[in-house]
Amino acid sequence: MSKTPAANDCRESTRSLEALDMALRSALLAWYARERRDLPWRRTRDPYAIWVSETMLQQTRVETARPYWERFVRELPTVQSLAEAPESRVLALWSGLGYYRRARMMHAAARRVVAEHGGRLPAEAEALRSLEGVGAYTAGAIASIAFGRRVALVDGNVARVLARWFAVTDDVKSAGGSARTWRLAERLVEGLAPGQEPGDWNQALMELGATVCTPRDPACGGCPVAALCEAHRRGIASELPRVAKKRQPATQQRVAIVLSSGRALLLARRRSDALFGGLWEPPSAEDGLPALAARLGVDANELRAAGHVVHVLSHRRLRVDVAHGPLGARRRWALPGPDYEEVRVVPLRELGERAHSTLARKILRMANVPIGGVRS
Ligand code: SF4
């Protein structure tokens, strides 16, 4: 029986799609082999080291993450060592990277890997996804890079590249747009030829997005797949991907009191279920300077205003007015508020050993407390 014209058209378009995918794969992989950046976590296939790098890179730039990753895997080189480390040590190694929930989840997941998988990370994406803090992206990264599985991943870079290659005009963060980019990523990785490494492919996609197909002003002139890119052909590369505008995060007003001498300062540790949970910082509060000073038992009139700092989180913007005063000789201090579980006088030289946020550093700098030796 002869095929209908519609069936023939459909077969033709499937064939041309396959040819396009093949051309994209070989052009991008050849470019990646030549141009890939030499990053420390690309020199290993240790699943644990790759897991740490992928977790750090979720919200952090490569150059910021690099020294943290090097120190983290040097001090805690195995899943076992991470599982056995106290949370305070894990958070101290993470201090300054932000999004501390990532570190806490990884810590919990390491304990489960030891208890349920004999200390070895599972190779399959589905098993990886059952671990705390491991979503579809991280599971895809570990399974493909460390274990060579043909599993897709989509992060912001990959979504942008795919939206441009295939001229996806849906909002890539909407349910439909995200499903579409995941389907494209799966199609591309599943069709890799023997000898084409899924880990290389996924990293090549991310690398193109990070270095060439950048959000603004994509460098189409030097792009290895320009001849295959639909957005480039139509002249709409810089209009894609489409993403609905985010609402500005609400501003939250706080006040912090820095009490210090030349050698020590007062720090309080936040409750583990509070924002910045488990981290040390100068006491702060939302209900104003007089209330915070009263809880600490200091005279607000003896404090001087040092200025304010602004810290932007994913869902809120903090503006913190900083007041500074002398520490005095008192040894016992009351908790500064319900978000804290411990308060103590800490020698300045010990600051680097205590987990603290970038916001805490900003506050200390504003109060002119010397924090030399603490990583920024
Ligand atoms: Fe991105 Fe331009 Fe390359 Fe297309 S041609 S993938 S838009 S850099």
Keywords:
binds iron/sulfur cluster, alpha+beta, 44% helix, elongated, 3-stranded antiparallel sheet, Nucleoside Triphosphate Pyrophosphohydrolase, 4-stranded mixed sheet, Endonuclease III, domain 1, 2 domains, 376 residues
Describe the structure.
With 376 residues, the protein is an alpha+beta fold. It folds into two domains: 13-239, Orthogonal Bundle (Endonuclease III, domain 1), CATH 1.10.340; 250-366, Nucleoside Triphosphate Pyrophosphohydrolase (Alpha-Beta Complex). It is built from 14 helices and seven strands. The protein has helices at residues 5-35, 47-57, 62-75, 79-84, 87-94, 101-117, 125-129, 136-146, 156-165, 175-190, 198-211, 230-234, 289-296, 358-366; strands at residues 250-260, 264-270, 280-281, 284-285, 304-312, 316-326, 340-347. Strands 4-1-6-5 form a four-stranded mixed sheet, sandwiched between helices. Strands 3-2-7 form a three-stranded antiparallel sheet. Strand 5 and strand 6 form a beta hairpin. Helix 2 (47-57) packs antiparallel against helix 8 and helix 8 crosses helix 11. The radius of gyration is 25 Å and the shape is elongated. The termini are far apart. The protein binds iron/sulfur cluster (SF4). Iron/sulfur cluster binds at residues 161, 164-165, 212-213, 218-220, 223, 225-226, 229, 231-232, 237. Iron/sulfur cluster binds next to helix 9 and helix 12.
